[in-house]
């Protein structure tokens, strides 16, 4: 038998890949009656220095249900960290109620993700995963009305290193500390007045999160976004109190209410998200703006097309605008959009958008393999 020899330098190598597993526990019985398009949002989690989030759709996306494709339990995988070309593999497997992993209810997703101001149409910041249909028998996976989905993530590589990343993932406890600081109403030192309603906060927190609030609270010149009233409160104009409250929640917790929570409070999800995006752009809250863009991309429909496209144009949202044009480049969608009053108003007020739409229709829709909205 021949002796083993050492390999010449450079012909073989080995490297460690970041990999981590999580369990997603969901109250299946309580969510199965949600309307199509409603979702629950998981806490963010980190793998290899990149932050991810899962959106659970108990009845799938609204548009797939409308097209008669059946109701499927789905996940939307979202890359939160601003980074380019992150190659990742996701394995999702249902856990049976006897503790063993299912051999049939398993999905594998391998994709390059990009979260770079939503500029790349070929590298989406998220992807859809259809787990199973509601017609499937799930009794063997239910435990006290819950299902458990194991999620294993492996990072293969990236064109960029996430800011602040290191070999050890930093603790995210500070987010809980800030949330508690806000909820406990401790050491509040500034009051905002929004359409007659008062909100209290901390100057340093507001200034640290938003350069606009930093200028309002500590700048030397007047600000167009806020001014002091006679009572010493900072006047916020052009915004509804409910929108400011959600913006304040994001500033302290890095999160916003999910769709079902808004629906339970009789809040129009589309309208509030559009207003929140405008507020995020006004106060330079980049991550909040990106989160709103992502939600509006997912909720795009015939009725929301025109207002969403105008919003994207007004607030410099290239990914959202591209998603709108892609949606309208489908002849069936365009024929319905053209019959709406909003489309007529759009053509009169924004002729440049109509030219972009015509160009997109001539080019035809993108290949479905490159679309981040396919299930």
UniProtKB/TrEMBL annotation:
A GO biological-process term: protein ubiquitination
Annotated ranges, domain MATH: 19-153
Pathway in which this enzyme or protein is active: Protein modification; protein ubiquitination
InterPro entries: BACK_BPM_SPOP, BPM1-6, BTB/POZ_dom, MATH/TRAF_dom, SKP1/BTB/POZ_sf, TRAF-like
Residues annotated as domain BTB: 188-260
Family note: Belongs to the Tdpoz family.
Protein name stated in the entry: BTB/POZ/MATH-domain protein
Species annotation: Rhynchospora pubera
């Amino acid at each position: 038998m021949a002796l083993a020899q050492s390999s010449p330098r450079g012909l073989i190598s080995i490297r460690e890949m970041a990999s981590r597993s999580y369990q997603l526990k969901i109250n299946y019985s309580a969510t199965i009656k949600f309307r199509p398009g409603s979702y629950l949002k998981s806490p963010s989690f980190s793998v290899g220095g990149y932050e991810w989030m899962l959106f659970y759709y108990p009845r799938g996306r609204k548009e797939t249900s409308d097209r008669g494709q059946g109701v499927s339990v789905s996940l939307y995988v979202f890359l939160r960290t601003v980074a380019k070309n992150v190659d990742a593999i996701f394995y999702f497997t249902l856990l049976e109620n006897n503790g063993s992993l299912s051999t049939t209810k398993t999905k594998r997703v391998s994709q390059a993700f990009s979260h770079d101001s939503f500029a790349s149409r070929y590298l989406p910041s998220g992807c859809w995963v259809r787990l199973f249909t509601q017609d499937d028998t799930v009794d063997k996976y239910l435990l006290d009305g819950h299902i458990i989905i194991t999620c294993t993530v492996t990072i293969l590589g990236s064109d960029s290193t996430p800011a602040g990343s290191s070999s050890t993932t930093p603790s995210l406890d500070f987010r809980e500390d800030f949330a508690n600081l806000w909820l406990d109403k401790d050491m509040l030192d500034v009051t905002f007045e929004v359409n007659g309603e008062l909100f209290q906060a901390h100057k340093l927190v507001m200034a640290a999160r938003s350069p606009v609030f930093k200028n309002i609270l500590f700048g030397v010149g007047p600000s167009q976004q806020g001014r002091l009233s006679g009572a010493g409160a900072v006047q916020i104009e052009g915004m509804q109190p409910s929108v400011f409250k959600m913006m304040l929640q994001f500033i302290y917790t890095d999160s916003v209410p999910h769709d079902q929570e808004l629906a339970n409070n009789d809040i129009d999800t589309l309208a509030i998200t559009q207003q929140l995006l405008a507020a995020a752009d006004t106060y330079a809250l980049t991550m909040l703006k990106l989160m709103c863009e992502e939600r509006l991309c997912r909720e795009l429909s015939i009725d929301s097309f025109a207002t969403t496209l105008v919003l994207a144009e007004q607030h410099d949202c290239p990914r959202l605008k591209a998603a709108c044009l892609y949606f309208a480049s489908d002849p069936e969608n365009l024929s319905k959009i053209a019959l709406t009053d909003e489309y007529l108003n759009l053509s009169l007020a924004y002729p440049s958008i109509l030219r972009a739409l015509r160009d997109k229709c001539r080019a035809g829709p993108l290949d479905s393999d490159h679309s981040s909205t396919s299930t």
